[in-house]
Amino acid sequence: MTVRPVTRFLLVATTALLGLSTCLDAAELHVVRDGRLVHSSLVWPEGITPERPYIPGDPFWGQWVHCGGTTRDGLYDVPLVFGGRNNHSRFSTAKSALGDCEFKVVFSCSVHLNRFPNITITDRGQLRFSGNGSQVWMSVSKRSLPLKPFAADCGNNPFDGKLHSLAVKRTGDTISFFYDGKKLNEQPIDPDVNLHLWFDGLKSATKIASIKLSAKRFSDKLTTNFKSAAPIEVIFDGSGKPSRKSGSAAAYRIPSLAVSRKGTILAFAEARRQNGRDIGNIDAVLRRSEDHGKTWGPEIVVMDDGEHSVNNPSPIVDPDTGRIWLFLGRIDIATLAQGWNPRRFVRQFVTFSDDDGRTWSRPVDASKTIREQLKPGREVILPGPGGGFVTERGKTAGRLIVPMNYTTGAAHWVAGVIYSDDHGVTWKPGGVLLSGGAALGEAKGVELADGSILFNGRTSTKQRGLTVIPNGGTTDTTRFRYAKDLPDPSCQGAVVRYSWPQDGRPGVILYSGPGLATGRVQGTLWASYDDGKTWPWKRQYYQGPSGYSDVGVLPDGRVIVLFEKDGKSRVGFTVLPGHPRRSHGDRDRVDVARPVTNATRPCFPHNQKHLSAMNLITPRSPVRPISRRAFVTGSLVGLGAVPLGRPLHAAEERPANRPTKKLIGWGTDVAYPAKVQNTIRQVEELPLDGIVLSNFSGKKSGKDFTFDWECFGRQKFDRQDLAPMIQILANTKFKRFTDNFLRFPVQPGDFDWFDDFRAPLTTHACGPKWPGKLVPRAGSSMSRTTRTSVRLQQTEAGRDEELRGIRQPDPAPRTSDDGSHPVTLSGHRVVVSLATASERTPGCRSETGPVVLLRAASSVHRWLIEAAGPRVRILTARNRHTDT
Fold first, then answer.
1. Cα angle for residues 688, 691, 693 (degrees, 5° grid)
2. pLDDT (tens digit per residue) in 515-553
């Protein structure tokens, strides 16, 4: 009996009944049963292969038939060619499995063309045979959620023409793999995620007795639910179909970002009109957002050169003039077909916009001008991908830098520079990497503290390549190394300067790229605190397929990423919440300094207008984690620590098993190692969620001072004084207490830990620059406008005017056991720290909202956070010292 291929979609009732049946404890989906193909159990692999999506009208698929074969002797015979067309023998199930499940194939194979029968678990791995059939392998290349690879001996050769079985089985949270009934391997897996599986002949002639999927229940969803750090919006979406009109293309690729002087986001991409190939009818297009990515304008075509290929848009924003420059590469397809000669087939075009990216000048061919200045043996190929930047340091400040791919006698693709020192009037070739043949392509650059340009580029070694071009990007270099902590599946990536070193705090460089070396998956953001030498911090922004990307920083300090999402046809945009750090509770949390390259960037981005108006923008002190549930900020002077429950904006009732709260006095008057050791022992005994340290400094009589000095006549502890403490902390299990943590002085407002919980900090400090009456007013306005959950107010006892507008006096104040007074504030939790021990602040109350009130001498200036529920016990640090 001959069974028609699925492409004809001839469904009969008998095969439909055979396809899906239900047992007492599981449902069954038969794809092949007793050698007969069940058409209704199959689905075309649309979306499973995004590089080549199934489109019926695509000429490519006209050469193929799907799962064609005939039934003979109880076997479904699947040849390499069926009906004169290539046989696409991927038996993709029309359902995915939930809960306990098994996918089993009984087959024989005697002919294979170095491609072997396999079972694929979507996005996780492929169970396949080795070349000689002696082993079964788990291959995880290009998988977003890879299983652990393994190799197991077969015993029975799968290519002997006899029937063999291959199976995948999930039981609870374990997935197991079998060949001829023998378990080859097992490993953990999420028991609740849907698994989509298929059998693929993959250019081998197979005969199939059965393909069956059994599961506790089925789902119609065949794709994986990938997690993301923040919402992702697809702003360029390829249809897969040829299109010449604006706003539509077969594919969009090669994203590039810029943020204008007005804060407008400019998202560029290649609109590949005809197909997804790298060279073809490609236009450079743009979409604009004037509200930080909430809404987007229509697609703007920046350059359309007919059938020629316009590639790699690379924008630069000149901060002095506001002009937005855009470099583009244009490839003549017909000339390229004649051979590799960049001088003949590729040209460099430049255009600009003076109206925030709405309209663009006519592109100008700058190829001749640039080539006349090139050194012998060099040619420029294409800019980027990704945006350029403007230098900010030293004699070259204000230089416009375009990342450029060069070809030299030693290598086809190396990193280099095109630059302008006159705001784009003229452009010159700069330095390049001369590395003896090592290729570093599609590299993007960032300025280092010494004025050099660091390029981070693509290699073929599974690691990112780094080179430094000195003297503002004008001098050739041979410096080259691999970044061992940055994986690279041979894909473009992007870097950007987030902040510069300031007041002893390290600067930050961010890198965006795939998170695994095995495939373009798991889009991840890394941070470096030492000008690219190491990249210790990372955050995954998308779990699924993630290709080329660009990264930028908004004026409010948030990080934006534009990246190829779910294959090679669509581009997604995301704004990472808060600042580039892990969420509360992450084991490897590392906070980074807020951006300082733009004076308008506030300490707390969501309160920009209030903080800017009050001139309350200050840098922050670093944070280092000490355990999964404990974090530290500030200095050794004045620590208050209590076990915390939930983030401060969670208002659940306190769990019955919460430990008794305990206040640990960390404040020390001298560099006293024994005190530190004792405190560490106390901290280790508590399941802490948070620790807050504080060391305020400011101006007094025109001189710098800290509270240490105010009490004990010394300005600060120097590093020699602190050396014994540093050593003790380094030898404890709090390994991330380092020199970076012990910093003096800390400025008022340096409390980045609170920002994790949307807690704006307003503070009064000594000195004329911090008018006490205005600070609480700004804080009160911030709280109302941003609907924050927590309000932190530092004040001094007796200055009731500083609290006006945020509370009302309680006619009958209540005093707690330890002598403190409760304070409440409508809709917010408040921490009030008192600097003077001899005065009492009257008890206060408003409508609702728990509050913690701190009393402390100025020598032990404490911040105490409590978040166990809506009813909070008042905790107080008792006075230990008096002012001198």
1. 165
2. 999 999 999 999 999 999 999 989 999 999 999 999 999
